[in-house]
Amino acid sequence: MLRRLATQRLVQIRHAFNPTSQTSRSFSTALNYHIDTPDNNTELPWEFNPKNQEKVKEILSHYPSNYKQSAVIPLLDLAQQQHGGWLPVSAMNAVAKVIEVAPIRVYEVATFYSMFNRAKVGKYHLLVCGTTPCMIRGSRDIESALLKHLGVKRNEVTKDGLFSVGEMECMGSCVNAPMITVADYSNGSEGYTYDYYEDLTPERVVEIVEAFRRGEKPPRGTQNNKRINSGPEGGNTSLLGEPKPPPCRDLDAC
Ligand code: FES
């Protein structure tokens, strides 16, 4: 019995670490260690550009001056937008300098949150939701359609640098599953957007990719034209009347 359980556990562990497995998980660009490369090393200078330096001041103004480190997440986010969607070590060091902490304190945050990318991503980083409601509604087919159409593996960037495909956990849009987010880094931090595309089919997600390739901005939100936002397909089936006002709205009359 014990041996059988141990064997089952071993199979589960192997399955979890097999990148071709249907149940494999890979978050964001999933690089939680640093190896010096020509475009990612501590010798490369990095600083916020003049426009973003103004934003840095604005972000810091939200926190007491002796708690600058609380601004680490918005500052990393801004650095990532400025750097085309990923965080080289010198950008993290620049953030550490701004908030006056040891660089390791910034590395800890950047490697913990999956929205921070530690390796290059495409100008359009496509994040497929892989959590249960989206998976039941076909997120694996959405991801396969994207990978096949773009000719990449998960977390790889297309040769033209335009697209990459990652995975995220539930993005709170389960009622419109399956869905993806498109992080658009094509216009720096000034034009950065992070939009949801919902109620997808494999065909529709490919159309969306091609629209981005043409430089268009496809309409975000539900892609099912029989729904309004998260409303039921075909219109409401309940709560059809006008809602009653709350009692005692006229406080003088109560
Ligand atoms: S499971 Fe995909 S948005 Fe919640």
Automatic annotation (TrEMBL):
| GO CC entries | mitochondrion; respiratory chain complex I
**UniProt key word Membrane:** no
- Keywords assigned by UniProt, alphabetized: 2Fe-2S, Iron, Iron-sulfur, Metal-binding
One Pfam family for this entry, by name? 2Fe-2S_thioredx
* Single Gene Ontology BP annotation: mitochondrial electron transport, NADH to ubiquinone
InterPro entries recorded for this chain?
NuoE-like, NuoE_dom, NuoE_N, Thioredoxin-like_sf
Full protein name: Uncharacterized protein
UniProt source species: Daucus carota subsp. sativus
